Amino acid sequence: MNGVNEIRSAFLSFFAKNGHEIVQSSSLVPRNDPTLMFTNAGMVQFKNLFTGQEKRPYSRAATAQKCVRAGGKHNDLDNVGYTARHNTFFEMLGNFSFGDYFKPLAIELAWKLITQEFGLSKDRLLVTVYHDDDEAFELWRKIAGFPDSRIIRIATSDNFWSMGDTGPCGPCSEIFYDQGDKLQGGPPGSADEDGDRFLEFWNLVFMQFEQVSPGERVALPKPSIDTGMGLERIAALLQGVQSNFDIDLMRALIIAVGAATGVDPDGPQKASHRVIADHLRASAFLVADGVSPSNEGRGYVLRRIMRRAMRHAQMLGAPDPLMWKLVPVLSQQMGQAYPELLRAEPLIIETLRLEETRFRETLARGLSILDEAVRDLSQGDALPGDVAFKLYDTYGFPLDLTKDALRARAIDVDVEGFETAMARQRAEARKSWSGSGETGTERIWFALKEKTGATDFLGYDAERAEGVVL
Ligand code: ATP
Ligand code: MG
Ligand code: MG
Ligand code: MG
What GO molecular functions are on record for this protein (predicted)? Predict the structure, then answer.
């Protein structure tokens, strides 16, 4: 009854009943935005509707949108496996109004869905509003009957949503659930708001301005609504579990990892099971949307995600490539909602098998080099940049994989030293290329290496990569 698949359907049919067109999830590779690496919110496919640039036959829509947050403005990669609420791939449930309804109906519908359809207890709910948004404040008071203490005014950008330097923007109101004092953490806006006790699960964005240029903001002709609710988070709440990784869908994947490796999914290595389950979803969906692992741009982000999971598979003692074997379990869980997963299944399996087979040729050796290099280091020390670079260049270790590997030992990586080593290697490569002695083959090799970006940095540092037209 409360399974992920039912919750997704319940959300969509609630909004269909309320006059919304059900629209398919768009691809993880944004078709309309070369500056964005991956679709990271439900509104991405509707961007031009908010500004009025594009028209559709409907003015209300609802979606379950595939999202990846592993780069750019929203990068949750390092959190995954270690926080209870972050995935790299997740589904965002959203309802949208394009110049149709605004704050009153948006809040009313949200309140009705979570308290009546989903049955969340009103006493556990609280919300934030942008500090000067008196209208939203009054609406929550009226519609939810909240006392003032449960409507928290926040002055930071957490409650003012913008798409980028320009574009539609506006104040937002986030809905939180208090999971009780058995968990650590304070309410939103407090000093310890990052704990797990108060879980943000829905963000209602009141799109009412357009940032025309960095210094100029004008009112949109027709204010609009954009909301995003994490399916994994609402599922955790409805299933009475405290982590996205304990919901039915993720649990099925985690159990499959345990069965394939013989390692207890609830034992001391549970973070590895979680990372593998999460990264399997991200990898499979990215491949289904046409991304393949490579050394630059989107393909490199995919490779980083895959290899990171593959190191965890190795740590669980998997004797052979593991990830590809889990694909049928994922298809079984999500194939009905996302038929592209079924269509691409053979490609996903082959891509994972090939990548893991290749990476295994250097992984074990790289890990022993890493072990050796940190043997004499202690907590708070940093791995020298040239070692991190050697692991990257010779053993195919993305920098964040090396960081992840050292995380448990609280050892850092000298990132600056890593960058210096990379710059040095590039300069040397160029120098010997321009020298007179080398053969034609070497010339081609260097040219190719530059072109394919074997030493290219863009993909790994997604902040930088996001600004690049891919
Ligand atoms: P958080 O503060 O927890 O990182 P956020 O404020 O960055 O979340 P939004 O950009 O408001 O998230 O996205 C809307 C909703 O999508 C969130 O309320 C949450 O339910 C869900 N969500 C966001 N990031 C993730 C993630 N990495 N994994 C799973 N769900 C997520
Ligand atoms: Mg976030
Ligand atoms: Mg937040
Ligand atoms: Mg939010």
Answer: alanine-tRNA ligase activity; aminoacyl-tRNA deacylase activity; ATP binding; tRNA binding; zinc ion binding
